[in-house]
Specification:
Structural class of chain A: mainly beta
Oligomer: heterodimer
Strand content of chain A: over 45%
Order of helices and strands of chain B: EEEEEEEEEEE
Helix content of chain B: under 10%
Number of helices of chain A: 0
Distance between the termini of chain A: 41 Å
Largest sheet of chain A: 6 strands, mixed
Structural class of chain B: mainly beta
Number of strands of chain A: 11
Helix content of chain A: under 10%
Radius of gyration of chain A: 13 Å
Order of helices and strands of chain A: EEEEEEEEEEE
Chain lengths: 111, 113
């Protein structure tokens, strides 16, 4: 059974600081997603990572994938308050379209 | 292009009742997946439908069922509601399932009293 673990689960940081969220998964997968969720809202797709060594960047967020280590990271650069949200990684099984989600990282960026 | 729509957005039911939630995928998308989100269990896969057939099912009791119509719209039904069924139910659509990217709807917030 595929398991996905994120850490930290809670992250409080100051504006302007950098930090990294980690996502580990237990079995082989062919793609990994990062989503953002604001309170009471749905999931917004941030990144899709398809292959080993993949790196994608959008604004202050950068995601990477190491399939050998079964690890993805979401790096936040110079955080701003607008980045406050819960971030989920989700791993797709190699067959089918089922996504297994991590527990989510609740990020709070303080002014 | 319109996104995924879900109705109703909010629902309050009492224990023992049943409920039906609806999801209209993005035009042209043929795969619809359902997820349950609760504070305790997080986001969990319920089932996936493609071309009116259930293609995959998560680990939920038989009280949870679904179907898909020929226009790709999907419904999920929960019978004999329990307090623990209170959750945000998210629907995601994709072109063909598999490796196609999934786009999530706004969700239906179900409260069971």
């Amino acid at each position: 059974e595929l398991k996905v673990e994120q850490n930290p689960l809670f992250l409080s940081m100051q504006e302007g600081k950098n930090y990294t969220i980690y996502c580990n998964y237990s079995t082989t997968s062919d793609r990994l997603y990062w989503y953002r969720q604001d309170p009471g809202k749905s999931l917004e797709s941030l990144f899709v990572l398809l292959s080993n060594g993949a790196v994608k960047q959008e604004g202050r967020l950068m995601a990477s994938l190491d399939t050998k280590a079964r690890l993805s990271t979401l790096h936040i650069t110079a955080a701003v308050h607008d980045l406050s949200a819960t971030y989920f990684c989700a791993v797709k099984e190699t067959s089918g379209s089922r996504l297994t989600f991590g527990e989510g990282t609740q990020l709070t960026v303080n002014p | 292009k319109a996104g995924v729509t879900q109705t109703p957005r909010y629902l309050i039911k009492t224990r023992g009742q049943q409920v039906t939630l609806s999801c209209s995928p993005i035009s042209g998308h043929r795969s619809v997946s359902w997820y349950q989100q609760t504070p305790g269990q997080g986001l969990q896969f319920l089932f996936e439908y493609f071309s009116e057939t259930q293609r995959n099912k998560g680990n939920f009791p038989g009280r949870f069922s679904g179907r898909q119509f020929s226009n790709s719209r999907s419904e999920m039904n929960v019978s004999t509601l329990e307090l623990g069924d209170s959750a945000l139910y998210l629907c995601a659509s994709s072109l063909q399932g598999g490796n196609s990217e999934q786009f999530f709807g706004p969700g239906t917030r179900l409260t069971v009293l």
